[in-house]
Amino acid sequence: MHKKILILALVMALLPACSTKWTYHFQEGPVYGSTYHITYEYKPSVTLEKDINRILGRINISMSTYDPNSTLSRINHNDTTARLDADLKRVLEVGREVSDQSGGAFDMTVAPLVNAWGFGFTAREKVTPAMIDSILKFTGYHKIRIDGDRLIKDDPRIMIDPNAITPGYVADVISEYFDSVGVRNYLVEIGGELRCLGKNREGNAWRVGVDKPLENTLEREIQQVFHLEHISVATSGNYRKFYEENGVKYSHTIDPKTGYPARSNLLSATVFTDQCIYADAYATVFMVIGLEKAKQLYTQIPGIQVYFIYSDADGSLKTWQSPGVQSMIQNSSGTQEQPKPQSRKGG
Question: Are 164 and 281 in contact (CB under 8 A)?
Fold first, then answer.
């Protein structure tokens, strides 16, 4: 009898805790030269803001290209005491993997080229063919390698720019932290790249929009809205980050092989896959290699789906999508969840 009373008392004591309804929290702010927006469901009286900020700060200290004291900046400036932390090592390892898979279309040693063209962490220079040729002599992902906790560079002039992969990595890290503390509904967006799980506050799939690639406009027009529940998404495009000089448009996507801004009729590449670090990297790859090669390469990469926006011979916008994308488009009415990220310049 006493055991039954004790068990009943224990059950009654646990009921309030078990029946407490979680609520949706929202956090946003500037980060890595852009912005972030995070929505997640958790305990009503508890936020995870401090832990999220700790992750953002930790990765900034690791791989910021603007902070001279970051691990990456010290490596870029040949500080022999700099050692790779787990975050930077992971980003470099995935970068090497994607570089191999893409035949060098993804290459984080392009930092001097990105800087020369005015899209990096130093002032734009007067670009000449001779300058590009000289820089190409010491760029190339085969010229760096990881040795334990050190990054070995074949040439001291080599500099690393992880901007094409860092936001996706951060989205993964925060999402994996949410997974570890029991969060089952969230959308993490870092600089426009995002990872989501579960449902929104209305109990529906997350609605994520891809911009129509329109130049010279401050207005944002959505090309397509997708309904997503357990996936990562990254989009790369040249229609917002570019400049014109003497009637020539220069985009921020640099072809590592030529040293010049990539040129093709592919205006926007969106990649869907499990981990956002890969979505981020391959979106950049596809913008570098162009539409036709992108159609071929995506079939060689397991577990990804793609949505491309391009211009045809008449200048009209067209789309091409892989077979698995259609299920994310069906019944995708309504507005998107994620706010517009600000322009991303670097770490």
Answer: yes
